[in-house]
Amino acid sequence: MEQSRRHGIELLAPARDAEVALAAIACGADAVYMGGPRFGARQAAGNAVEDIARVVEAARPFGVRVYVTLNTLVFDDELAEAERIAREVIDAGADALIVQDMAYMEMGLRGVELHASTQTFNASPEKVDFLARSGFARVILERNLSLAEIRAIRRATDVELECFVNGAICVCYSGRCYMSRTMSPRSGNRGDCSQACRLAYDLLDGGGHVLCRSKHLLSVRDMDLSGRVGDLLDAGITSFKIEGRLKDAAYVRNTVAWYRRRLDEAMLRRGLSRSSLGVSEAGFEPDIARTFSRGRTEYFFDGRRSGVSTPDTPKAVGQSVGRVTRTGKGWFELDGQETLTAGDGICCLIGDELSGTNVNKAEGRRIWPNREMAVRVGTEIYRNYDKRFYDSLEGCRSRRTIGVRADVEAAPDRLQVRFTDEEGVTAEAVWPCANGAARDAQRMRETIVGQLAKSGDTIFRVGEVCFPATGEVPFVRIAELNALRREGLERLLAARTAREPRRHIPERDDRARYPYGTPDSYENVTNRLARRFYERHGGGEAASGYDLRSDLRGVAVMRTPYCVRRELGMCLRKGGTGGPLWLRHGAFRYRLEFDCDRCQMRVVYEGREEK
């Protein structure tokens, strides 16, 4: 357990770009993860190496770590570019690379941790232990796991474990979804997922009868484990990860500040410490219910269950603000306690369609929408954009500071100050005094203490100034005191920045054996280096990954613990009627297979229907 927390407990935030990364750091993130120039699982969230270096520079004084995602599959003709980018990112100061493709394990990369992406489907003790022994410093767990499964993995290994706690859930086992490629050339494993799971499907029985029409049967709610961080700490989780590398700064600020409070409270009760330094003042009151969500769920954290999908819409409907009690020409009234304001975004389900607009005017419980909505008495209204809350986010000044003590030594000809931060890092500054002794020593002493305590717009917070109560005090002008303080804090910042980052790069054990015999196509081997990795670890002749195939008919393009039967009350274990089932989206047809012993569902692509 102690080895698994060698860096301390970490709150890990997403960053689509440098500005979002800086916002996350200010609000209390212990680490941020962001895409590299290419080969990241969010193609639209790539970052130049120069921007990564800028984030590293801002993060380093706080001990905040920066991880770069290079977590897509690489083809043979891309290996040279992938290695070049990896080395450039390492030179920029990245603490870790998050990777899916085992080719990176064969590139001889030095001076950086490698973290096994959730895309490598890390769901069993055997798989996680194998990756740890192979040289990964951290393993990022599958999002579909229960707490019991997480505990079982922890018992099998002391590697650092990272766990998603908030955001979108891949309904399929991570890295094992090829559904996007059945409808288009776009591949989730190549950073360009079309989100086929969010589409509407018809559910058909063996006779071709439609049981459900145009429902989002594979779309699940967003994860929220903010109430379970204590359970995860007790289970041995090192890093608490927020999903959302495509989200804006407002979302990241609010979510980071929300989880910062809950994680700090849980750590305090257990005597645990965080992995970075600094106190964050968010500048607003965080509220997780007021930012983007498709509805919140703890998913399968306590075991498989129903009620986790969003069959009516895959979009974020937001927070319920009441039901319609009266309607009139251009207005309606609501019950409930939430107060709406002009500019709020509102929506509701009208039939099977999500209808939305903005509030034009609000007086008490009466609302005038910008465009007419066909609502009736009893319609539930949701707010998907809270204007006042977002205004508070955009107008806030989040600030993170490190506590410092200043020890003053005075002599007739000089004033010397030693600044010491919370980790014991020190820096000194000396100011020669040519003005003689102060006439009023006590007043001068108070002035010196007061000026040295003003840390200004730095990352430091001078909480204590220690000055001997007796002895001669030189006369020092305020401008000179400010210059002395500025010089000392600049030296302290330089001392903190110059320290070697804390990284754990484990030895690689070539005796580690791939636990499942010969790797099948689901292990996503798409290049010669990945093949060599598995051969080196006893994997034999690994099958080519499905991303190298153009025709996926007959392939289970999705494997998942989520079950359409269970969600619709048709579970065979609970007396549901059997018989084959299919999903249909337009011309695309998929057969559903159910493994009730494992409580898993497979979605098998059958091709396109002929018209």
Binned, the helix content reads: 10-25%
**Major sheet details:** 8 strands, parallel, barrel
Number of distinct helices: 13
Please give the order of strands in the largest beta sheet: 1-2-3-4-5-6-7-11
Number of strands: 27
The stretches of 5 or more residues where confidence is low (pLDDT under 50) are none
Cα end-to-end separation: 59 Å
Task: Look at the helices and sheets and give the structural class.
Answer: alpha/beta
Strand content: 25-35%
Mean pLDDT: 93
The backbone outline, from C-alpha atoms, is globular
Report Rg: 28 Å
Describe this entry's structure for a reader.
The model has no long low-confidence stretch (mean pLDDT 93). The protein has helices spanning 18-26, 49-59, 79-91, 125-134, 147-156, 179-183, 229-234, 249-270, 387-395, 441-452, 478-498, 528-536, 564-567; strands spanning 10-15, 31-35, 65-70, 96-99, 113-116, 138-140, 160-167, 201-205, 210-215, 222-224, 239-242, 279-281, 296-297, 319-328, 331-334, 345-350, 353-363, 366-369, 380-385, 399-411, 414-421, 426-432, 460-466, 556-560, 581-585, 588-595, 600-608. 43% of the residues are buried. α1 (18-26) runs parallel beside α2 (49-59), α1 runs parallel beside α8 and α10 (441-452) runs parallel beside α11 (478-498). The chain has 13 helices and 27 strands. It has an eight-stranded parallel barrel with strand order 1-2-3-4-5-6-7-11, surrounded by five helices. It has a six-stranded antiparallel β-sheet with strand order 9-8-25-26-27-24. Strands 14-15-18-17-16-19 form a six-stranded antiparallel barrel. It is an alpha/beta fold and 611 residues long.
